[in-house]
Amino acid sequence: MTGNSIQQKPPARSLFPALTAATFVTAILAGLAADIAWEVWARAITPFWVGGPLEPAALVQSVFGFRNLFLAEAIHAVVGIVFYPLGYLFIARPIARIATPFLPWWIVGLGFGIGLWVFALYVMAHIFAGLPPFLGFIQLTWASLVGHLIFGLVTAAVVRWRETRTARA
């Protein structure tokens, strides 16, 4: 350090990400990675634990009252790939930055996953579809929790990776 150089503080973290194409790309990449991880868990691993796959499209059908499985799968995919990652970026992470700024990114991601699980199995399944809260805490409930934890962690990891990568550029 020379006598003429001024040491600068690192830039403060903004509460919300900038509304840019890069932010949207980050959300989509996070959603794709998290949705793929969810699908591997739900359809390839969960059957060994509970005897069958997690089928969120069936919940979508119950909530909206239609029988079209393709449409239900498409709705679940769009929500997972687009809207949940945006929810992480613009709702969950800003709340964590205000309420618990000391938590590392991965705990925030796991908390986000728990929030998605509560939303799916209490709000959507119970309040909207009329099923027992958290499906009565059957084995499928816990498999769903693990899947949502994976989803939240992967979402947070991809967002962190993208932001770290763009900060270095």
Automatic annotation (TrEMBL):
The chain crosses the membrane at residues 69-91, 103-128, 134-159. Keywords: Membrane, Transmembrane, Transmembrane helix. It comes from the Bacteria. This is DUF1440 domain-containing protein. The lineage of its organism: Bacteria, Pseudomonadati, Pseudomonadota, Alphaproteobacteria, Hyphomicrobiales.
